[in-house]
TrEMBL record:
Domain Transketolase-like pyrimidine-binding: 602-799
Entries under InterPro entries matching the protein: 2-oxogl_dehyd_N (IPR032106), 2oxoglutarate_DH_E1 (IPR011603), DH_E1 (IPR001017), KGD_C_sf (IPR042179), ODO-1/KGD_C (IPR031717), THDP-binding (IPR029061), Transketolase-like_Pyr-bd (IPR005475)
Entry keyword set: Oxidoreductase, Thiamine pyrophosphate
Keyword Signal part of the UniProt annotation: no
Family: Belongs to the alpha-ketoglutarate dehydrogenase family.
SUPFAM superfamilies with a match to the protein in the record: Thiamin diphosphate-binding fold (THDP-binding)
Keyword Oxidoreductase found: yes
Name of protein: oxoglutarate dehydrogenase (succinyl-transferring)
Function: E1 component of the 2-oxoglutarate dehydrogenase (OGDH) complex which catalyzes the decarboxylation of 2-oxoglutarate, the first step in the conversion of 2-oxoglutarate to succinyl-CoA and CO(2).
Annotated source species: Acidovorax lacteus
Cofactor(s) recorded in Swiss-Prot or TrEMBL: thiamine diphosphate
Pfam families recorded: 2-oxogl_dehyd_N, E1_dh, OxoGdeHyase_C, Transket_pyr
Length: 958
């Protein structure tokens, strides 16, 4: 109430709002009521505040928010009787007072567009009419006129127009220009105004602080020049021209530590990465030199180039040790960003830190990539969602103004700034001239303060330049001749700052002395970050040793005792009386209760649920996300029960898997945003930092994994052999030819098969409820962490033939190969002439066809684990049928897709002498599936018939 009173008092006290200006203000207020966006920001803020002011006349009109305005106008009118006569001078003065407020608003809104940001000064600063006093009718005669400036933070309630303009330009148009007025949060706007205007965007650093900044600039420049001289022509993606970035990182880390942050996870692409490794994280220079000289230990099957490498260390800060992690990154630049966010979320969850007070994500972007690669927009969409928020990210742009190899601004982007995509989440942007390292450090301080205060994303855009080419092997002047003439004349940020400090009396030779000392450290291969903590061990650090260096094994003890099964089944099928489920959901849970008691076979949804329940009851957290994961795209899961009488998300849902045991591990299920690339990368990042959680990403349809292919290629399939990063993420990809057309049939099994080597991941296609139960449990119970790709079914979710008896859950385990199930055929194995091997749903079609034909000389084997191929088990099954002369691989997918081309050599290896291998399936196709239902049925019938017909086409003989 006190706040609303003060707003009203301020309103009453502003006399320029009344009298001759009353019609103008009243019209503006009516415009605001019709459309708040139609009035200037200053007025909109003013009227926003008035919405909360109660009526002041004691009437019953308290619900009319603009009553104070009407009353005030009436009161002012009464003071002059029935007619108010104002001198023209007063009217003009009132207009000028209003114009002053508009001028202030203009500088706050667009001042950064006139800021001094370009170190190269290649273009004249643009003319921004709104920043020109003449735009509002002011002349030189008005310069000394004093106006009310109480709504600013310049330290004066009244200032002359000249003073005000100087203050505004210093604050918003110097080497630091900040965008923040588009935020809808008034508290955040006022926070920025107070922070910037109170110091006019100029830091007041001590002499020691300035010397430290120079030291960091010297280190940044020193490393690049050392490498440029010693390793001529080798790629390193130099930071020269953007050295202030290292000072920014140093400030960010030190200040974050002082504010209680204990871990910082950094994601960045190539530019400046080696500099960060050495000068920020403290990697030993001699270790980096060894990589340049190709003498580094090669203990990985593939390895990766030095500017993709990650690193971790612990450094000392005023608040205590801070653990720094630089994420490994492929050449797809921005794809590392959601990986970092997922890693941060895992660390937050482990610490019980829901707001990100102890863990900070820092993402470093290039100016072209940040807006040009859509994964950033997807990642920003995640920023404030419940399942993915990390308490705000500090983004830093190394903006070299060239955009990879582009120089013409018309080809760089379609927005004013490369940072404009951040406006989608109302993230403030601090544009700063890289040649003013003090302003860069100030920007870092403000960005961190904002993030810690509001737990939201914020951006520091360091406008700099790139001294060399995109890499050190090209000649940029071929395509940017004028720009590189300017760069050739530039003395360098370090030199400019050293000269500035010398002029301030801080030592004429200080810069040279620092450069010599750094060169000596490089020659000795010593640390350049002081102090790096070599023996610190956080209690939150993950012990990966149980999962490293493990040889592949298919076996694991995944069955659970019958008593435990029944206990868990009762827990997850009991709906509290306070929750009213939908009738269809109630039936699902009633049926599951019967399954739990062993009265009927267990279906897929119950088998999956019991796997999750048994894991969380045993202390393994489960994190399941996807575009429809709570219900399940095919409504088979129902992990979240929505109360039919309540709609609030916090009280209107019930999750049985969160109520399995008193001290159970967490079960989290998330209906993600409509994203594949960023969400899968996020979950990969989460799994990369938590080997003890079953992390599952489920595609709505398996085909949608197409949108995340870069994550699959560059992280999931190859992360271990490139970087030694063990990861146990699980992908569930609905797959099956059900006549739903080309986009809803295939999860592109062939792509995963082609990516499989070095036992890098598991490719499985289970066909029964017990198989999914054991497979999910095996993923956690084995001391082995490999990505698991499950091709889950659609029609089999409700196919009674795919259900399993309770006994298959209380004994046994995951079967990589399911042998022939017809005991009559097994008993007469010597009569079998043909063995059909298959995987997935087509098995049930084949069994049905065999029954119709009475073909008791045909055995059918299911391969449930396609990679690593189970040679021992599969070979043993083939040997059972020693008189069989033909092996047929049958699949739903077209011949050029599916498993055929990647599995035939595995089958051939296990065939007996004289046996022939043939193919039964759809013909090769450019499309995954047909879109016409009748054609689908014809093809399905034909491929099943072909599995029993005479071999034709390609036949491979042993």
């Amino acid at each position: 109430m006190s706040e609303t009173k003060s707003v009203y008092a301020a309103y009453q006290g502003n006399t320029y709002l009344f009298g001759g200006n009353a019609p103008y203000v009243e019209e503006m207020y009516e415009n605001y009521l019709a459309n708040p966006g139609s009035v200037p920001d200053t007025w909109r803020d003013y009227f926003d505040a008035l919405q909360h002011v109660p009526a002041v006349d004691g009437s019953n009109a308290k619900d009319v928010p603009h009553l104070p305005v009407i009353n005030a106008f009436a009161d002012r009118a009464k003071q002059g009787g029935t007619k108010v006569v104002m001198a023209s001078a007063d009217v003009e003065m009132g207009r000028k007072r209003t114009a002053v407020q508009q001028l202030i608003a203009a500088y706050r809104n667009v001042g950064q567009r006139w800021a001094d940001l370009d170190p190269l000064k290649r273009a004249e600063r643009p003319h921004i009419p709104e920043l020109d006093p003449a735009f509002y009718g002011f002349t030189d005669a008005d310069q000394e006129t004093v106006f009310d400036t109480s709504n600013t933070f310049f330290g004066k309630d009244r200032m002359s127009l000249r003073e005000l303009i100087n203050a505004l330009r210093e604050t918003y148009c110097g080497t630091l220009g900040v965008e923040y007025m588009y935020t809808t949060d008034m508290a955040q706007k006022r926070w920025w105004q107070q922070k910037l205007e109170s110091i006019r965007s100029k830091p007041q650093f001590s002499a020691d602080k300035k010397k430290h900044i120079l030291d960091r600039l010297t280190a940044a420049e020193g490393l690049e020049r050392y490498l440029h001289t010693k390793y001529v022509g080798q790629k390193r993606f130099s930071l020269e021209g953007g050295e202030s970035f290292i000072a920014a990182m140093d400030e960010l880390i030190q200040q974050a530590g002082a504010k209680g942050v204990q871990e910082i996870v950094i994601g960045m692409a190539h530019r400046g990465r080696l500099n960060v490794l050495v000068n920020t994280l403290g990697k030993m220079p001699k270790d980096l030199f060894a990589e340049f000289e190709h003498t580094a230990p090669e203990d990985l099957p593939a390895g990766d180039v030095k500017y993709h490498q990650g690193f971790s260390s612990d450094v000392s800060t005023p608040g205590g040790p801070v653990h720094l992690s630089l994420a490994f990154n492929p050449s797809h630049l921005e794809i590392v960003n959601p990986v970092v966010e997922g890693s941060v979320r895992a660390r937050m969850d482990r610490r019980g830190d829901p707001k990100g007070a102890q863990v900070l994500p820092v993402l470093v972007h290039g100016d072209a990539a940040v807006g040009g690669q859509g994964v950033n927009q997807e990642t920003l969409c995640l920023a404030q969602t419940r399942g993915y928020t990390t308490g705000g990210t500090v983004h830093i742009i190394i903006n070299n103004q060239i955009g990879f190899t582009t120089s013409d601004p018309r080809d760089l982007r379609s927005t004013t700034f490369c940072t404009d995509i951040f406006k989608m989440v109302e993230a403030p942007v601090l544009h700063v001239n890289g040649d003013d390292p003090e302003a860069v450090v100030l920007a870092s301080q403000l960005a961190l303060e904002y993030r810690m205060e509001f737990r939201a994303d914020v951006v520091v855009d360091i406008t700099c330049y790139r001294k060399l080419g995109h890499n050190e092997q090209d000649t940029p002047s071929l395509t940017q001749p004028l720009m590189y003439k300017k760069i050739a004349q530039h003395p360098g940020t370090r030199k400019l700052y050293a000269d500035k400090l010398a002029a301030q009396g801080l030592g004429e030779t200080l810069g040279d002395e620092m450069a010599k000392a750094y060169r000596a450290a490089m020659d000795a291969g010593k640390h350049t970050v002081d102090p790096v903590l070599t023996n610190f061990k956080s209690k939150y650090a993950v012990d990966w040793s149980p999962f490293l260096g493990k040889k592949w094994t298919d076996s694991a003890e995944t069955a659970i005792p019958l008593t435990e099964w029944k206990r868990l089944a009762e827990k997850i099928t009991t709906i509290p009386p306070t929750v009213t489920p939908h009738q269809l959901v109630k039936k699902v849970f009633d049926d599951r209760a019967a399954m739990g008691r062993g009265e009927v076979n267990v279906d897929w949804g119950m088998g999956e649920h019991m796997a999750f329940a048994s894991l969380v009851a045993s202390g393994y957290p489960v994190r399941l996300s996807g575009e429809d994961s709570g219900r399940g795209t095919f409504t088979h899961r129902h992990a979240v029960i929505h109360d039919q009488n309540r709609e609030k998300w916090d009280t209107g849902t019930y999750i049985p898997l969160q109520n399995v045991a008193e001290n159970q591990a967490p079960f989290v299920v998330i209906d993600s945003i409509l994203s594949e690339e960023a969400v899968l990368a996020y979950e990969y990042g989460y799994a990369s930092n938590d080997p003890n959680t079953l992390v599952v990403w489920e595609a709505q349809f398996g085909d949608f994994a197409n949108g995340a292919q870069v994550v699959i290629d560059q992280f999931i399939a190859s992360g271990e052999v490139k970087w030694g990063r063990v990861n146990g993420i699980t992908l569930m990809l609905p797959h099956g030819y059900e006549g739903q057309g080309p986009e809803h049939s295939s999860a592109r099994l062939e792509r995963f098969m082609q990516l499989s080597a070095d036992t890098n991941m598991q490719i499985c296609q289970p066909t029964t409820a017990s198989q999914i139960f054991h497979l999910l449990r095996r993923q956690m119970i084995r001391n082995l962490r490999k990505p698991l790709v499950i091709f889950t079914p659609k029609s089999l979710l409700r196919n009674k033939d795919a259900t399993s008896p309770l006994s298959e859950f209380t004994k046994g385990g995951f079967q990589t190969v399911i042998p022939e199930q017809d005991e009559a055929i097994v008993k007469k194995a010597d009569k079998v002439k043909r063995v059909i091997a298959c995987s997935g749903k087509v098995y049930y079609d084949l069994v049905k066809k065999r029954t119709e034909k009475g073909a008791d000389d045909v055995a059918i084997i299911r391969v449930e684990q396609l990679y690593p191929f189970p040679h021992k088990v599969f070979g043993a099954e083939i040997k059972k049928y020693g008189n069989a002369t033909e092996i047929v691989w049958c699949q739903d997918e077209p011949q050029n897709q599916g498993a055929w081309f990647f599995i035939q050599h595995n089958i051939h290896e296990n065939m007996l002498e004289g046996q022939k291998l043939g193919y039964a399936g759809r013909a090769a196709s450019a499309s995954p599936a047909v879109g016409y239902a009748h054609l689908h049925q014809e093809q399905q019938k034909a491929l099943v018939d072909a599995a029993f017909a005479k071999l034709k086409g390609f036949v491979l003989t042993k």
